[in-house]
Amino acid sequence: MIFLLFLSIFWFCDFACEAQDLEHNYVVGPQFTNCDSLPIEGTSVVEAIELIRKADFRYHQNFRLTRRQGFQSGNFYSCDVAHGYMIIRYDGVEKLYVNVPKSAWESLLSNPDPELYYLKNKALWQLWKSSE
């Protein structure tokens, strides 16, 4: 009986406890990137994300969930620490949002269910689209 109880708790936690494996990192440092002149126009989404990741921003924060599907990770890059670029990995696909308020990023991080928050609010953020 105790074994079945333990097994059911373990099974439940296997599905419900995924969000507990959360990694947060952030950096506030010198800024070497002029966000107004970051050359992402005319590039593909993959190229734009690579340019953003290579640039030196004043503020950068990321987190990762240990999931194989759904909401997997997020990155926020900002020059002014008020607005910035947000890269979200969902079902293995990265999406780039621009001019995202830092307060929206912080709400995403502090939400007990970041995936649900993302799905409910992603339409409010400006999705970057390639001009190709």
Element pattern in H and E: HEHEEEEHHE
Strand order of the largest sheet: 1-2-3-4-5-6
The total tally of domains equals: 1
How large, in whole angstroms, is the Cα Rg? 17 Å
Strand residues, percent: 25-35%
Structural class: alpha+beta
Mean pLDDT: 80
Shape category:
globular
Span from first to last CA?
Answer: 62 Å
Main sheet record: 6 strands, antiparallel
Using DSSP, what is the number of strands? 6
* Uncertain residue segments: 3-22
Helix content: 25-40%
Give structural notes:
This protein has 132 residues and is of the alpha+beta class. It has one domain. Helices cover 32% and strands 31% of the residues. It has 4 helices and 6 strands; from the N terminus they run αβαββββααβ. It has a 6-stranded antiparallel beta sheet with strand order 1-2-3-4-5-6, with helices on both faces. β3 and β4 (83-90) form a beta hairpin. The longest helix is centred in the first third of the chain and has 15 residues, at 2-16. It starts with a helix and ends in a 5-residue tail after the last strand. The model is unreliable at 3-22 (pLDDT under 50).
